[in-house]
Amino acid sequence: MSQLHYALFTGCTAKQSTPELLSSTLAVAEKLGIKITILEEASCCGASHLQDFDEFLAHVLNARNICYAEKLGLTMITICNTCQLNSQMTKHALDTNPELKARVNEKLAEVGLEYKGTSQIKHFLYTLIDEYGLENIKEKVTVPLSHLNIAPFYGCHNIRPSELHAASNNHENPYNPTSLDSLIDALEGKPVNYESKNKCCGFHVELQANHASEVLSGNALLDAMDNNADLMVTPCPLCHLKMDTYQPSISKVMGRDVKLPVLHMPQMVALALGCTEKEIGLDFHVQKAKHLYSA
Amino acid sequence: MIHTEEEVIQEAKRLDKEEHATDFDHPVKVALKTFRFNAETDYLPYYKTYEMEVTKDELVLDLLNRIKWEHDGSFSYRRSCRHGICGACAIKVNGKAVLACKENAQGLVKIFGNELVIEPQSQKRAIKDMIIDKGDFWQKHADVKPFVVADVDPHPTEETRISPERNEQFLESDYCIQCGACHYSCPALEVNEDYLGPAALVAAYRFSIDPRDSATEDRLELTSQLGIGVWDCVKCNECVEACPKELNPLEKITKLHNMQFEQGIAKRNVATKHAEGFVRSIKKYGYLDEADIVVYSEGYLGMHKHVSTAVKMMKAGKIHWHSGIPFIDSVPKIKNLDEVQKLIEISMTHKL
Prior knowledge:
The complex is a heterodimer of chains A (295) and B (352).
Chain A: E1 5-9, H1 19-32, E2 35-38, H2 50-53, H3 55-72, E3 75-78, H4 81-96, H5 98-109, E4 121-123, H6 124-140, E5 149-152, H7 162-165, H8 179-186, E6 190-191, H9 210-226, E7 231-234, H10 237-245, H11 247-254, E8 262-264, H12 265-272, H13 277-280
Parallel strand pairs in A: 1-2, 1-3, 3-4, 5-6, 5-7, 7-8
Helix pairs in contact in A: 1-12, 3-4, 3-5, 4-5, 6-8, 9-11
Chain B: H1 5-19, E1 28-36, E2 46-54, H2 60-71, E3 90-93, E4 96-99, H3 105-112, E5 115-119, E6 126-128, E7 131-132, H4 135-143, H5 164-169, H6 187-191, H7 197-208, H8 216-224, H9 238-242, H10 249-262, H11 270-285, H12 290-302, H13 307-315, H14 337-347
Parallel strand pairs in B: 1-5
Antiparallel strand pairs in B: 1-2, 3-4, 3-5, 6-7
Helix pairs in contact in B: 4-7, 7-8, 7-10, 8-10, 11-12, 11-14
């Protein structure tokens, strides 16, 4: 296999409240021999909120991000579901609407850029599975996760709308997603089967509809716990923020003790590949997760 | 180039085979685990399993008919047009919203395996088997004034013309068949009964974009209210996935958000500040300043709600200051930030 090389769009969260996401992603890539070029020029994707204020501006900023991956001639990979959705939405809008593409490019020209539509956008989860390959990952496992019941939490923005994502997520079915389960399998962990795995965590209404947000997260966390999960794993740092940092307040709303470590997808892979404790970064969790590192 | 008739037939066969490459070429045995309930006689719902061979052309509606005709005549469901236009036969199969008359049964077997769980759109609203009380749906629909409000000239001398451009702006929202698939797939509605939900919001958009209408402001006022309107959408895209007419309700919800800002109806509150606060942050750093967006949206007085979470995050090392000085620049800056600042300046379609 020739060396895989990607342009990494880190998103804001990996640069701030979840540094463990960035360090574990880079550690996994290094272990697997995947070359990563970080797009340090990339700005916020708008996180599905900027477009509520100004949809056109959101397209311009996302198109600018993609331009930098295009300049490198690389696939842009994301480590956040919402970055993936927003970038992909802009790509789809521009690739299918020449008039909009022209309007966006008119703005980009002012800063010497042009959106062409030549780079694919793919979440790291799907590059690992579809391009690196589960069989190849299996060979690299040094610390099998066979002692762990792992609840996969897919996060909305990687699987819905399915038509938009089909080309980049290998036609994952949003009603019965399997990618994260198969990755857990490859690392020899035991995937937990529970109904909430493809449901919403409520992150995006955290401020204005706090109760709804807490109940949605609570339902999913308790569903995983009731199905004997030792931990939850998610490819989305926004799901992670909601489900990891808010467990004490979620417990109050749900009237039950909610305690479950929540890992980022690359952290789980990093554990199985024997990356260092520092790289995996379990220190940065609000819900204690350090016991999961057993070296 | 294809020349002979033989080659044409071969090519057609090949294409047909390609198109149906994943079809089963034989009937498959399916167990229909079916929700049964009669509100008049049953204390609790129960499931009954019906087994049948399903051929490749059968729709879910055919299976419902077979349950009724071949197994139990008391089995109840709504059906009418059989053409995907009346919306009556909407149910859920393994949690997926479907129009029974449009959904191929073997297609579902491919997704979920040989056990199909047949359920009404909303179990807590079940009256009899698949039949639910859709009262909440219709009430919310009525709330958004789902009609053109206009002074109609009783003796018009010419038709009302709608340009092709304006027609495009409807984004096919007028194709909604009110089946409720999106409404009963919406998790925000599930946990907040006051929320209008995707179907009512699509209707609000459809009539607000209509050039003949004069109640747009009322609808935008209503749908901008916290607790019931667009700001309570959780952005999960379940409605986009559920809609059998592929109308993308979330796209219309986004348009309503935009219209509220464009027409000056958005009031300054935690949700609107959160949306426009992104611009402020991106201008400064390129990234979103996660701490600032919370403080800016809530205001200093609103921050008491977040103190305990902030302390926990700080303890875990999740909040740190890029500058090394507490409360100054918690965020790094992106490279070529000036480009982003310029793009914001020249691309914003309306003011903050």
